[in-house]
Amino acid sequence: MATHTEFVIQSRGAGLYEFTRDVVDWVRATDRAEGVLTLFLRHTSCSLLIQENADPEVRDDLNAFFHRLVPPATDPAMSYLRHTYEGPDDMPAHIKSALLPVSLTIPVVDGTPTLGTWQGIFLFEHRAAPHRRRVAAHFA
C-alpha cells in the first residue's frame, strides 16, 4: 500500500536547502521496510538535487556556478529574454529548473532511503526572494 505526504521548505533566497532528515524520518515512520520513494517538486523555478551534504562549500559553488551559467535578466548576455515582468531572476530560474531535476526516485531498503555516505536531498532555490516550496512525496 502506498503512502504520501508533502514537505514544505521555506527558502530564504537562492541556494540549496537540505531536507534529508525530514525525508528519512517520514520514511521510517511509515513502518515499511522496502519500496520506492518518489519526490516531486510542485514549482517551476527551483529544483531537487541529491548532492554532497558534508562540505557547505559544495552548495555555495553550485549556486555560484548556476548563477554564472544563467545570470539574471539584467545581464547583457540575457538581453534576449522576454519573460521579465516577474523580476530579473524569474526567467533565469525557469531555465535552471529546466536544466535540473524536479523529481527524484530513491530506493528504500530496511526502512531507510539508500543514500550514499555524503549524499543529501536538497531543494535548489533559484529565486532571490524567499519562497514556500512544496515537495510531494510518494512511497510505494
Q: What's a concise summary of this model?
A:
By secondary structure, the protein is an alpha+beta fold. Helices cover 24% and strands 36% of the residues.
Polypeptide structure, described:
This protein is of the alpha+beta class and 140 residues long. The chain contains three helices and eight strands. It has helices spanning 20-29, 56-69, 90-99; strands at 3-10, 15-18, 35-41, 46-52, 103-109, 112-113, 119-125, 132-139. A hairpin with a 2-residue loop joins strand 5 (103-109) and strand 6 (112-113). The longest helix has 14 residues, at 56-69. The chain is elongated and about 55 Å long. The termini are close together.
Number of helices: 3
Average pLDDT confidence is 97
For the largest beta sheet, what order do the strands appear in spatially?
1-8-3-5-6
Unreliable stretches (pLDDT < 50, length at least 5) are none
Beta-strand proportion: 35-45%
Strand count, sense and barrel status of the largest sheet are: 5 strands, antiparallel
Number of E-type strands: 8
Gyration radius, rounded: 16 Å
Order of helices and strands: EEHEEHHEEEE
Helix content: 10-25%
List keywords for this structure.
3-stranded antiparallel beta sheet, single chain, 140 residues, alpha+beta, 8 strands, 24% helix, 5-stranded antiparallel beta sheet
Blueprint of the fold:
Layout: E1 3-10, E2 15-18, H1 20-29, E3 35-41, E4 46-52, H2 56-69, H3 90-99, E5 103-109, E6 112-113, E7 119-125, E8 132-139
Antiparallel strand pairs: 1-8, 2-7, 3-5, 3-8, 4-7, 5-6
